[in-house]
Amino acid sequence: MKRLFVLNILFVLSLVIAGGQDKSSPVSLKGYLSNIQSMIFEDLEDDWINDNLLHNRLNIRLYAGTKVTFALELRNRFFTGDMIKLDPTYAGKLAADNGLVDLTTNIFSENSFILNTKIDRLWADITMGPVQLKAGRQRINWGQTFVWNPNDIFNAYSYFDIDYPERPGSDALRLQVYPSYSSTIELAAAINNEEDLTLAGMYRFNKWGYDIQLLAGMVDSEDIVFGAGWSGAIGSTSFRGEISWFQPQDNFSDTTGTGLFTIGFDYGFSGTGMLQLQAMYCNNPLSFNNFDEFYSENLSAKDLAFSEFSLFGSVTYPVTPLFNLSLAAIWYPDLDGFYTGPSAEISMADNLDFSFIWQYFNAELNDERTKMTLVFLRMKYSF
What we know:
By secondary structure, the protein is mainly beta. The chain has helices spanning 2-20, 82-86, 90-95; strands at residues 27-41, 49-64, 68-81, 104-109, 113-128, 131-138, 170-180, 183-191, 197-207, 210-219, 223-234, 237-248, 258-268, 274-282, 309-320, 323-332, 337-349, 352-365, 368-382. Strand 5 and strand 6 form a beta hairpin.
C-alpha cells in the first residue's frame, strides 16, 4: 500500500508539470536533478568504496488565492554501488522516517540498487494580516549562524551533507505573529515517530542594529531549553551567535545540563571573496565512534559538539564569475583532530553546475588514529 501511495503521488506530479511552469498558473514547480559519484577511502592505496546517487527533487506550490498556500516537496534518490552491499543496514536507514507520519519508503530495494522516496515538506499555510499559521511537515529554522545552530531545536542539520540544501523538516504546527515590521513572535510544536514532543516559543526583535531572539521550551519530551541568538554587524563584518542550555526535566534543579555557545564572523572582500569564522564551546560534547555520525539526518541541536571547543574557518574565492574555489577547515582539540574540505564549482551553462568536493577527517577515536576521505563529483541541473 505504501508503494502504491508513493507511485500515485508521482503520477499526480507528472500531471502538474505541464502547467507548473506557467506564470499565470496557481501551481508552481521547481527542483533539480543531480548525479553524484562518490569515493570513500582511508588511504589512497587502500580499497575504495564507490557509490553513485541520482537525485531528483520536486518542489510544488499551490496558491489558493493570496492567503492560502499548499506545499508538497519530495526527494527521489536512486542509489547504486558498494555501500549497499557492504552495509546490511543501509536500506533500513534510508527508509527510516523520524516524523510522526511515515512519508519515506524504498520503492525498490535490491542487492545492487535502492530507489528511495521521501516527502520532507507537506504543509498548508494560512496568512491573515499579521498572523501566519502553518501546519504539516515543514522546516522551522531558528538558526542564526552558519555551521552549528544550537537555537535550531526543531531541525538540526549536518554541515557535511553536501546534497541536502533544503535541510530536514518536522511534523509541526507553527504560529507566527508580526507585531511590527521588525519583530516576530513564534509558537511551534512538533512530534516525532516516538511521540516525543518539542514545544517552544521565540521572540525576535531589532535593537541597536541587531536582530535578537529569545527562546524557551521543551525538546523531545526530555529537556527544558533556554536560548538566545543575534545577527548584526561590526563595521563591514557580519557578527552573529547563538547560545542554548538544555536541562533534563528529571534533574531540573542540578547542573547536569548541556550548554552550547557559538559566535561567527563573515567578511566579504569587495565582491571578490568571503571569509567565515565560527567558534563553539560545549560543556558536555557528544562522544562518537566513527565519522559516519557526522552525516546523521536526525541530529539534535543538543548533540552538535564533538569537542569542548571547536573552531571553523572557510574562504571562498571567485576565480571568474563562473568558477569558484573554496576551502573549509574545522579543528577539534579534544579529539586531537581536524576536518578539511576544499571544493570547486563551475557553472557550465544556465542552471547547470559541476562541483568537486573533497572531505577529509582525521581524529583520535577510541585511542586509535582514524582517518576518512570522501570525494564527490556532482553534476546538477536546476529548473
